[in-house]
Amino acid sequence: MSGRSGEERGPAGRVYAPDFLTELFRNPLDPGYSDAAAAARRRPPGRAPGWRGASARVVSLVVTVALGFLFAVAYRQTAAAEPERGKTRAGLVQQIRERAGETDRLSDRADQLREEVSRQRAAALGGSQAARLRDLEAGTGLGRVHGDGVVVRLADPVQDKDAVTGVGAGPAQVLYTDLQRVANDLWGAGAEAVAINGQRLTATSTIRSAGEAILVDFRPVTGPYEVSAIGPDSMARRFRDSRAALLMREVAETTGVSFGVREAEDLTLPAAPEPQLRYAKPSVSPSPSVSGAGRSAGPGPSGPGVSSSPSGGGR
User: Fold this and answer.
1) Domain 145-272+305-315 has CATH 3.30.70.1880
2) Where are the alpha helices (H) located in 126-242, listed in sequence order?
């Protein structure tokens, strides 16, 4: 073998260069690693690897200090604004409670005035006409009614709270369309009067949703929802066999929504608010009659026991 590394000398002084595989197995380490290791050994102890490494450490330190300063300022601002937000929230809650109390007082006053008007009107009309007017009011939802009937109860399932946000993450809730189906099928089963959580339904009533809230005649109702209906004895059986009851039983089994139907005695359903009269026409007959006045007020049931769909007409 010759003195030069990697060369082999054969007969007659010929030189043969080693092939690639032989050289790879002989020297597996890349020459660059050897040069870097040799440079590290030649560097004096304690000397920095270079200006690039030092500048990188300085930049990292500056960025860390800047981020810490920003986080500290944001925390101080958040902590300083928290009392003001708490005061604003408390003020809004107080205003809501005051408005709700005022609304309840006005509603009670309106009921008292309505009863007084009914007494004065009955005294002015006489026996037969007053009785017919009460029947018409009961059928159209403008009068309070008593009787036996059915109560359909729907409730949202128990939802698990998220550990971080505290927001419910359970199955679906009761939808406004569920209340629509139940109310419509109660009318179809023979109901003469229907109310949802005390809100009486008429021929022009609407059941809507606004965000996550359910509105009945633009008034919010909250769960559990009770749809009360007064009607004949066969109403409960006919409603249990209706499409709405079958669908809600299936929904209750799959999503956990609570659904139940029970018969109730001596139910009392309140009267619906007086409708706003936008226009009126004089009666065709020479003498005004109660039935003519009822027709001029707008579409609706003509007497007790007539089924109507409060939510279907407003879709």
Assistant:
1) yes
2) 127-140, 176-188, 235-240
